[in-house]
Amino acid sequence: MAQQERPLRFAVVGCGALARSRHIPNIARSKKAVLHTCCDISEVALKACADTWDVPRTRTDWRETLRDPEVDAVVLATTEKLRLPVIRLAAELGKPIYVEKPIAKDLETLYQIQNAVRDAGIPFCAGHNRRNAPAMIEAHAIFRRHMEHPDPCPWRWDREPELKPDLSEDGVASFNCRINDDWYSWKAWVFDKTQAPHGPMLFEMTHFTDLCNWFLASRPVQVAAMETGMLNHAVIIRYETGELATINLCANGTFGYPKELYEAMGNGGIVVVDHMLEVRTAGIAGAPRRILYPMLEDRHPEIGREGGVSGWLAKKRAACTEVEQTGDPMKLFTAEPDKGHAHALDRFVDEIRGTGPVVCGVDDAVVATRVAFAAVRSARERRYVDLAEV
Questions:
Q1: Which of 34, 56, 91, 144 could be joined to 120 by an S-S link, Cβ 3.0–4.6 Å?
Q2: Which residues contact 56 (CB under 8 A, 6 or more apart)?
């Protein structure tokens, strides 16, 4: 079978909880990829991979894994401590690599990764999976089309048109992110400053800074941020063409309510993504008013049949009752939104083969990470921070 036709053979380096819950199952189920090797220093993790997914090969040496001529591409899901050397070797070998976010925990390493990838010209994908969620892809397409070719609804109220001033910011977009999280669910490494020196302002924030950059399609130039510590963060990003993005990240919330709400506004219209379960629009001629998206691993198909956020809330209430009755906290997770993990992998295969666009390349990942570092500095120093400083 020709290289263009056969599934690509992937090695997963770093087989912790994220890899075993997302990347490994997605590769195993994909029609475009095949699981070839699982690599980890933990024999327990490797045994779990072999027992569950019948992986052909397990290894504890990442160098041997990458140098295996049968391995076509790599998913790197280690901690940030083991990112740069793996990426450098992949670059030397010319092997495409998907890297979990954040791609680095300091700026020097970030730029070394960028240079290694650029110099080698290898396909590189950062794990900003939300770009690949079906709801986000559709919302982004609707919004960018409206911003580039405005088509406001005829009912837009134009009060006193003859008295309106010319405003330079007319037609400039804004983007709001609201994140509801519960810190009781976090693992111990989050609180270890040697592993996560910047806390959620880096390890969570890059997801959302990346989305802001993607939706607003402009260069970020300045960041202002405040935080109460690890649990509450507010960030404002200003772009060179005038756009503003806001991110409100709260970790004192609850899993009993949708986690993510995104609102993109401009040219008299709005596109809303609610928990990646539904997209709503208003003020955009011809755009669908509401689009619903399927849920993953739904244990309660008979509940909340209407779908969307209201259907999800009904299913979540049933799941919460199950937790109370059984004492098993994992029963809380049912009917989850499709956050794009599997689609990111398949789209990356298309990129590698030259049949699809760049999914989230190293330059986009670096900008998203720089914005997060600017937010860290702004909150710490209590001032605006220009992107040029980082």
A1: 91
A2: 35, 36, 37
pLDDT band for position 2 (cuts 50, 70, 90): very low
Q: Is 4 a residue whose pLDDT tops 70?
A: no
Bond into 197 cis (ω within 30): no
* Amino acid (one-letter) located at 298: D
Q: What is the pLDDT of residues 68-115, one digit of tens each?
A: 999 999 999 998 889 999 999 999 999 999 999 999 999 999 999 999
Contact 36, 23 (CB under 8 A): no
Tokens standing for residue 123: 């396909």
pLDDT in tens, 243-280: 999 999 999 999 999 999 999 999 999 999 999 999 99
Using CA atoms, how far apart are residues 380 and 239, in angstroms rounded to an integer? 21
- HSE-up of 385 (CA within 13 Å, CB side)? 22
Q: Which pLDDT does position 1 carry in this prediction?
A: 40
Task: Tell me the C-alpha distance between 189 and 193, whole Å.
Answer: 8
What is the number of alpha carbons within 13 Å of residue 315 lying toward its C-beta?
26
Report the alpha-carbon distance of residue 247 to residue 175 in Å, rounded: 9
Structural domains in the chain, sorted by start: 8-130+343-361 (3.40.50.720), 131-339+369-389 (3.30.360.10)
Model pLDDT, residue 152: 81
Q: Which of 86, 88, 129 is nearest to 347 (CA)?
A: 129
Cα(139)–Cα(219) distance, rounded to whole angstroms? Answer: 20
Residue for token pair 């959620």 = 200
Q: Which two tokens stand for residue 229?
A: 């510590």
